[in-house]
Design brief:
single chain; alpha+beta; three-stranded antiparallel sheet; globular
Length: 105
């Protein structure tokens, strides 16, 4: 019997996501900036220089992981390329108006 391949970047089921966890993840200024870039719903490369944040690559990776584990994003792996995408449609269905509120200054 072949062993199943585990998802390298698992995300919680949308029904399991808790609002408090989403808000906790979005409360950090760097993560909020990431959410705002991702708000277009398109996948964006995880390359550190594309985000406009003056932080170390390891810190950026930590922020990506925090957003993913809170259920805000998913990581898409295509060959050696890793992209991150906001789960915009799912989040809008689960928490109507939340993402729009996060995008408001």
């Amino acid at each position: 019997m072949a062993a199943e391949t585990a998802e390298p970047y698992p995300v919680p089921d949308i029904g399991e996501i808790q609002l408090v966890d989403v808000l906790r993840a979005a409360a950090d200024p760097a993560r909020l900036a990431i959410i705002r870039v991702l708000a277009d719903g398109e996948p964006h490369a995880k390359t550190a220089d594309l985000w406009g944040l003056d932080i170390q690559k390891s810190t950026l990776s930590h922020h990506f992981k925090t957003l993913r584990e809170a259920g805000l994003t998913r990581t898409i792996v295509t060959g050696r390329t890793h992209s991150i995408q906001l789960r915009r449609v799912e989040l809008d269905d689960r928490f109507p108006g939340l993402i729009d509120a996060l995008l408001t200054d």
